[in-house]
Write a structure and sequence with these properties.
YmcC-like fold; GMP Synthetase, Chain A, domain 3; 2 domains; 14-stranded antiparallel β-sheet; five-stranded mixed β-sheet; 41% strand
Length: 375
């Protein structure tokens, strides 16, 4: 395996839809801090570090179970709860993770990794025996659910956990990477609090030894990387921030009507907030209403991508609502089409109302009802 394990593992947190109460005890001060953050309306820049967090730790201070201990349910160690924001920090850098979508029927998770202005989607699958990181490069700034597409061709990149969940279980995690459960802990104490029932997995390659700590109903809360070269330093990562019952807010690119040249558009940005498994139709209804392109009584009914054409269907009254905007449909439709093109990476947009092609009042109806984005 040519890349270091850290490149495969170091920027992941694994999420599941488990609804059990997390077994974590926080100090009153830390709990108050977290509760205050729950209602935040914007995600902090992921490069902003909590200066009071010391990310190094000594695993010899953790309380281990005896060697007969067995954890039964691998799904409790996938990661986190729905609507949970986690930040991992190593004192010089940090990144945040949030679960966009989870599908228990498919056994798939789609996570969002926010690293400064960069967003990446990560995909994971699980069953009763394994937790797997999948090889997939589908990424979108807008929270688009890719799980059905991923399920059609799931490719294993790395096996992160393997049953039985007991000390000594070993497996080949990936090409050139061996994994072993090296300890089960009754509790471990980190900067953010004390976590109960934690699995330590050691991943070993010719270049690195990395210890991952999977906390029950939280997932990866700490990482200890030991390079085999004496010229490199050890690295410690740990969860510096855990926000439960949280929305995530991202700044997204959108296009607005050009006030000085109707029919033309200008690039702009807008903040949008959502929670795990929010429907994409709900999010676009929220976005378009915020922009004033549709009225409160108009909804996005459906969005689908067929080959290279994006279909977006509205409820009745959308054209009248567009023409209430100062730019009218002459400005709103080009801005909407360009925004959708940017979000979905397509050039052809079919706008419809209750399944029938959207008929503008003044703009000519495009060929086949398909609006084509100009380069």
């Amino acid at each position: 395996m040519k890349q270091s394990i850290l490149l495969v593992l170091g920027s992941i947190l694994l999420l599941c839809g488990c609804q059990k109460e997390p077994m974590i005890r926080l100090s009153e001060a830390k709990q108050s801090e977290i509760n205050a953050k729950i209602n935040q309306d914007k995600l902090k820049n992921s490069d902003e570090l909590a200066t009071d967090v010391n990310t190094s730790f000594d695993s010899s201070t953790f309380t281990a179970y005896d060697e007969s201990q067995l954890f039964e349910d691998i799904s409790q160690f996938l990661i986190a709860q729905t609507n949970q924001l986690i930040k991992l920090t190593n004192q010089s850098h940090s990144f945040s993770m949030y679960m966009d979508y989870v599908d228990g029927g498919l056994g798939l998770i789609q996570m969002r990794e926010v690293n400064g202005d960069t967003v990446n989607n990560k995909y994971y699958s699980w069953n009763s025996q394994q937790l797997i990181q999948l090889a997939n490069d589908k990424t979108s700034m807008f929270p688009i659910n890719h799980l059905n597409d991923v399920s059609e061709n799931p490719i294993t990149e790395m096996v992160l956990l393997q049953a039985p969940l007991k000390k000594g279980t070993s497996w080949q995690a990936a090409d050139g990477v061996e994994a072993t459960i090296t300890n089960l802990y009754k509790e471990i104490t980190l900067a953010t609090g004390t976590f109960e029932d934690v699995i330590e997995v050691t991943y070993s390659s010719s270049d690195y030894e990395i210890h991952y700590y999977y906390a029950k109903n939280y997932g990866v809360v700490a990482i200890w990387q030991i390079p085999l070269s004496e010229s490199e330093q050890q690295q410690y990562w740990q969860a510096s921030e855990i926000v439960v019952n949280s929305k995530i807010t991202q700044t997204l690119d959108i296009y607005r009507p050009d006030e000085n040249d109707l029919g033309k558009v200008v690039l702009d940005k807008i903040d949008l907030s959502w929670q795990t498994n929010d429907q994409i139709t709900t999010l676009y209804t929220q976005l378009f209403q915020t922009l004033g392109w549709i009225a409160e009584n108009v909804q996005v009914n459906a969005i689908s991508l067929n080959n290279d054409v994006l279909n977006i269907d509205f409820s009745s009254g959308v054209v009248a609502a567009m023409n209430q905007h100062p730019a009218t449909e002459v400005g709103v439709i080009p801005a909407m089409v360009q925004t959708l093109s940017n979000h979905f990476g397509v050039k052809k947009i079919f706008l419809s109302v209750n399944g029938l092609g959207l008929l503008p009042d003044s703009l000519p109806y495009p060929d086949g009802g398909i609006w084509i984005v100009n380069e």
